[in-house]
């Protein structure tokens, strides 16, 4: 039997492609706004939410989403009020949520396998229900980006100018944080907590070197992300390696290749 005849591989490819498109589109604004570390912080904040869900017997993805949203908004509030620089606030929340997750999981034994799946992804275990969740959330996020595309581009390049022009820059900023948090949680099933920030940043970062327009950058980011997901899954299947890690390493290889090809243009 060939690999495409397995139902689990079909679901993995479909789910992976959807997550690849979603992370690429949202990741473009993460890179343009200089929020790569924010994406990492939000991704690792989900660890505390997963641990809380496991401890209380609640859906881990639901509690992870709540945690990610609270952390994202909390970081935004602290930094926009000038209390701390963004990287400092992220570092504090990052450490606190990871420590909370470790503490909570220490209170509940017997979940090591589930924990490994959330940390490093389990794309080959994607279920039909997971596909419906990824599709519904993905459509909502992409529709939001489509409707507010110009506004997100404006605040990415010139947030002060956006405020002067009368745009609700603060509301758009918090909405972008919300989209990042939702994207992170949806992508957990595919690449896991540890690797989701890489998928959110690496393809868009490579695309940034390939196009001088936001639209072109987004197209390249989607192409690189989907290729990384599909190629990574096939490599993982053939080499019997961890699928999430293989996807991210392939995306990183593409990024390195782009840097090599574009090195003389700086």
Structure in words:
The protein is mainly α and 266 residues long. It has helices at 7-32, 36-56, 60-80, 86-106, 112-120, 128-147, 149-157, 159-164, 169-208, 214-239, 243-261. The protein contains eleven helices and no strands. The chain has a single domain (3-256), classed as ABC transporter involved in vitamin B12 uptake, BtuC (Orthogonal Bundle), CATH 1.10.3470. Helix 2 packs parallel to helix 4 and helix 3 packs antiparallel against helix 4.
Top keywords for this entry?
ABC transporter involved in vitamin B12 uptake, BtuC; mainly alpha; 82% helix; 266 residues
Biggest sheet: strands, sense, closure? none
**Number of helical runs?**
11
Alpha carbon gap, first and last residue:
49 Å
| Oligomeric state of the chains present here | single chain
């Amino acid at each position: 039997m060939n690999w495409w005849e397995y139902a689990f591989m079909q679901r993995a490819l479909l789910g992976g492609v959807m997550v690849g498109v979603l992370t690429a589109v949202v990741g473009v604004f993460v890179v343009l706004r200089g929020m790569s570390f924010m994406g990492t912080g939000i991704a690792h904040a989900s660890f505390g939410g997963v641990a809380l869900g496991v401890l209380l017997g609640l859906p881990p993805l639901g509690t992870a989403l709540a945690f990610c949203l609270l952390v994202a908004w909390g970081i935004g509030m602290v930094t926009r009020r000038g209390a701390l620089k963004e990287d400092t606030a992220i570092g504090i929340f990052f450490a606190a949520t990871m420590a909370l997750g470790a503490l909570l999981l220490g209170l509940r034994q017997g979940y090591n396998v589930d924990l490994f799946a959330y940390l490093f992804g389990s794309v080959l275990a994607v279920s039909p229900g997971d596909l419906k969740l990824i599709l519904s959330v993905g459509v909502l996020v992409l529709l939001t980006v489509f409707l507010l595309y110009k506004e997100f581009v404006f605040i990415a390049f010139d947030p002060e100018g956006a405020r002067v022009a009368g745009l609700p820059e603060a509301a758009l900023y918090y909405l972008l944080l919300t989209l990042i948090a939702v994207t992170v949680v949806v992508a957990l099933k595919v690449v896991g907590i540890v690797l989701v920030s890489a998928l959110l940043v690496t393809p868009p970062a490579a695309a940034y070197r390939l196009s001088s327009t936001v639209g072109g950058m987004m197209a390249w980011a989607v192409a690189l992300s989907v290729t990384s997901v599909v190629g990574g899954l096939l490599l993982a299947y053939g080499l019997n390696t961890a699928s999430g890690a293989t996807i991210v390493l392939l995306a990183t290889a593409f990024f390195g290749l782009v840097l090599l090809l574009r090195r003389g243009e700086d």
